[in-house]
Q: What sequence folds into this?
């Protein structure tokens, strides 16, 4: 669907995006992560053809972004606004028309979207008369109208109340079911864990994590188990320490101990087990660890990522 | 530069409709000529009324004649004062006045009579008046905007000095020797034609009106562009827009839509002016050639593209409307500079100054329209061609530069760029 190859963008001799390569599959929700200043917005602007890369290649469904492919992408930037002194339906239909819809279909789709987000009754009101949350939902609709194949959403949950967060999640699932690809840039790691299939993390313009969210969590999991059980025997083979974590007991395993052997040992000792699981590191902790400790795939030295690799580029990319 | 005409037209349509539906647009459309008409009425009407009032109250002129040259002076002054400034009718309306001339024995008695309002004004003619021409006139008040009373007194002096020495016909001629003189001047076709007073007024008004409309239409369109771009940048709309349309499409749509909004205003004003002033124009045999109109349209288009490009660039590099207005002031002012030199341009349309200004793109449209409408102006074709060529070249450069600034500047927030940074953006984009 979306393929980014060896993309580089520099300002004043400093690379803000440095040899970044990844691909996003059709119908997946893909997270773009990174601390402030990591190069996410610059990368998104290159994907949307607002900025041109210095080198490298970005294609959407096999075609270079920009030109005809422009119709296929919608973008909800983090810093966003709407035309304020026009009726809501007109503000929305305008985006539809720019994505190639006729006047009538654009208006019909705008009304349908407003209905979907619970704003049908506000269709003829001026945008400036809407509350901030309502405006945010209209902004989301601007990214939905016109049937884009790739939606790029930058911090879409910010400013939404819990009910509207649920609504947005529902809408994202619907779009995904319809085969739409979503590139989600957010700092809300719990949302990434809940919603996203795969993720890419940038730090200072370099790729530091890339792969399926599940695999990333496994990769950074510590060698421990989470157990809810009572009573816990004084000594369990393969366990070298125990910590209390949120009402559970975290069993720190010996380096060569296997979880199934520990489970067998617990059962053998007649321990009443309520729950037993791997102790996975929350994505947020992985994020902090990677950024603070400079870990990851590419510390600014290497080329393309090694995990979940993408095919090698066919040749040197060129800026259009 | 890839450009989808359909997208540009969609943007143009939206820009045009949202602009013309605004209350501020309607206010400019109707309010500006209304305010202008009210101001003109407020300025001219009282002035006319004051002249009439002044002569109605001027009933008696007291004269103390120590020279003896006016012993046989006229006993009264007769004349008429215009009551309106109509240029439509064959004759302006007027009101007749009659002033009694009362000879008084000495200045002290005359001043007492003036203070007691027995006389309206006092004229003291010293003994050596014929030698040095010095006179003293006394009044209880004066009007700095009107000298109609002075002209009445002056006429009496001429008539009284000559009374009994020459016949009345000669006196009339001496009093207003050039009243019946007709001036013949070369018209644009190279033929001498009579130059009547009303036509003289139009000779001034026509270039002024054309030039002003040209300047206003360019600047109104440019200001709409500046405002639109600055507002959209300030309200962070553009980033999501630029994902769907490219900078060139956005720029082209704005240029078209907002230029059309500016033209709507000017066209309405022209239609309004033609409806109200049509009879006067017809009576004064004022005609505008199609070639002149065609050139004016061409200058408008090039001028609008030039200033539109500059205003768009300013809107793109500044952070808010206030900053944008400050930057644009200089360019708006440049467009109107030819009006400050109008006397010189209309008086000598072939002078070095007039030719130079019409080759300088920021001032060329207004200057050239002034020159083309100046009485007796014959502008060589090469000057028009060179001026248009220079305009087209600079308009193109302004558009290219602004498109580049537009592309980068729209996404830059915070610090306003310095000139070297702006130049670097234009080079790099």
A:
């Amino acid at each position: 669907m979306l393929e980014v190859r060896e993309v580089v963008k520099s300002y004043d001799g400093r690379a803000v995006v440095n040899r970044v390569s990844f691909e996003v599959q059709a119908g997946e929700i893909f997270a773009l992560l990174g601390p402030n200043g990591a190069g996410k917005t610059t990368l998104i602007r290159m994907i949307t053809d607002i900025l041109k890369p210095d080198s490298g290649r970005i294609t959407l469904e096999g075609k270079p972004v920009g030109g005809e492919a422009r119709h296929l992408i919608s973008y909800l930037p983090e810093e966003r606004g709407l035309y304020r002194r026009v009726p809501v339906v007109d503000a929305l239909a305008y985006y539809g028309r720019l994505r190639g819809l006729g006047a009538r279909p654009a208006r019909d789709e705008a009304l349908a979207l407003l209905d979907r987000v619970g704003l049908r009754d506000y269709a003829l009101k001026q945008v400036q008369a809407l509350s901030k949350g309502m405006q945010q939902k209209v902004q989301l609709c601007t990214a939905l109208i016109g049937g884009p194949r790739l939606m790029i959403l930058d911090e879409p949950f910010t400013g939404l109340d819990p009910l509207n967060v649920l609504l947005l999640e529902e809408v994202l699932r619907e779009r995904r079911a319809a085969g739409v690809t979503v590139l989600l840039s957010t700092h809300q790691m719990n949302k990434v864990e809940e919603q996203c299939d795969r993720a890419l993390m940038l730090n200072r313009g370099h790729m530091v994590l890339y792969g399926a969210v599940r695999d990333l969590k496994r990769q950074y999991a510590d060698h421990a188990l989470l157990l809810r059980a009572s009573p816990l025997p004084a000594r369990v083979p393969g366990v070298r320490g125990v910590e209390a974590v949120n009402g559970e007991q975290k069993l720190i395993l010996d380096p060569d101990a296997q979880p199934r052997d520990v489970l067998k040992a617990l059962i053998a000792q007649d321990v009443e087990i309520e729950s037993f699981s791997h102790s996975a590191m929350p994505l947020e902790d992985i994020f902090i660890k990677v950024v603070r400790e400079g870990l990851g795939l590419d510390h600014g030295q290497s080329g393309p990522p090694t995990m979940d690799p993408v095919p090698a580029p066919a040749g040197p990319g060129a800026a259009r | 530069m890839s450009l989808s005409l359909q997208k540009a037209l969609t943007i143009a349509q939206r820009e045009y409709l949202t602009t013309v539906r605004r209350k501020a647009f309607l206010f400019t459309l109707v309010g500006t000529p209304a305010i202008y008409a009210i101001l003109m009425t407020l300025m001219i009407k009282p002035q006319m009324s004051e002249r009439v009032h002044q002569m109605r109250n001027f009933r008696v002129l007291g004269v103390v004649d120590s020279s003896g040259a006016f012993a046989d002076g006229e006993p009264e002054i007769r004349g008429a004062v215009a009551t309106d400034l109509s240029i439509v009718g064959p004759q302006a309306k007027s009101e007749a006045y009659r002033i009694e001339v009362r000879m008084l024995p000495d200045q002290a008695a005359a001043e007492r009579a003036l203070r007691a309002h027995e006389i309206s004004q006092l004229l003291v003619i010293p003994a050596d008046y014929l030698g040095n021409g010095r006179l003293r006139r006394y009044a209880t008040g004066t009007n700095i905007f009107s000298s109609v009373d002075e002209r009445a007194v002056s006429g009496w002096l001429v008539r009284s000095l000559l009374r009994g020495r020459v016949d009345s016909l000669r006196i009339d001629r001496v009093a207003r020797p050039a009243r019946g003189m007709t001036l013949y001047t070369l018209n644009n076709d190279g033929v001498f034609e009579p130059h009547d007073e009303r036509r003289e007024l139009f000779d001034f008004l026509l270039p002024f009106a054309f030039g002003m409309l040209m300047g206003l239409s360019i600047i109104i369109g440019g200001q709409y562009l500046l405002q639109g771009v600055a507002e959209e940048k300030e309200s962070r709309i553009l980033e999501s827009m630029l994902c769907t349309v490219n900078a060139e499409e956005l720029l082209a749509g704005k240029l078209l839509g907002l230029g059309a909004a500016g033209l709507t205003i000017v066209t309405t004003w022209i239609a309004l002016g033609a409806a109200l002033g049509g009879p006067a124009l017809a009576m004064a045999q004022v005609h505008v050639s199609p070639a002149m109109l065609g050139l004016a349209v061409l200058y408008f288009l090039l001028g609008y593209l030039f200033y539109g490009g500059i205003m768009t660039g300013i809107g793109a590099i500044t952070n808010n409307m206030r900053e944008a207005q400050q930057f644009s002031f200089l360019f708006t002012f440049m467009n109107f500079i030819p009006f400050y030199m109008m006397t010189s341009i209309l008086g000598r349309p072939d002078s070095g100054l007039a030719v130079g200004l019409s080759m300088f793109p920021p001032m060329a449209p207004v200057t050239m329209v002034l020159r083309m409408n100046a009485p007796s102006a014959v502008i060589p074709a090469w000057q028009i061609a060179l001026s248009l060529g220079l305009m087209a070249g600079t308009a193109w450069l302004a558009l290219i530069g602004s498109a580049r600034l537009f592309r980068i500047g729209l996404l830059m927030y915070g610090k306003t760029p310095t000139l070297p940074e702006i130049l670097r953006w234009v080079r790099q984009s």
Summary: Chain B touches chain A at residues 2, 7, 10-11, 14, 18, 22, 232, 235-237, 239-246, 411, 413 (CB under 8 Å). The CA atoms of residues 281 and 287 of chain B lie 8 Å apart. Residues 197-234 of chain B form the longest helix (38 residues).
